[in-house]
Amino acid sequence: MYTEKVMDHFTNPRNVGELEGADGVGQVGNAKCGDIMKISLKVENDVIVDAKFKTFGCGAAVATSSMATEMIIGKTLDEALAVTNQAVVEALEGLPPAKIHCSVLAEEAIKAAIQDYYVKTGREIPGGGCTGCCGSCGHDHGCETEEE
User: Fold this and answer.
1) Whole-structure pTM value
2) Does the active-site annotation cover 33?
3) Which of 17, 43, 103, 142 could lock onto 85 through a cystine, CB 3.0 to 4.6 A?
């Protein structure tokens, strides 16, 4: 059911915890499944130098959070904003269809944390920021995370 890489990131998650004095924090959740992800970032010169996560959810939620933080550390903010849920799935060498929503939450948590960083630094958010797909901000734009 799960790939070896998913199981590795679930049983040995990377970057667990919270960053004290984080430059950006994003928390998202999916009411349909009860998963909640929180990603915190440390940013220097528009490069993510550290990222941590705390996730309440299933093994796939933990694995996608772990992989997502691995994927964005060392990237510029623009590069991290370009990380898609599909890229997270590919990095994990696949997820069962019923667990794809976890990768969507990981993508949204990254975007929410970067959006928080931009707000805290008084900068304009590239692309307008939130798309409402995670539902955590109260903006429902009709996205169906279960099918993405």
Assistant:
1) 0.85
2) yes
3) 103
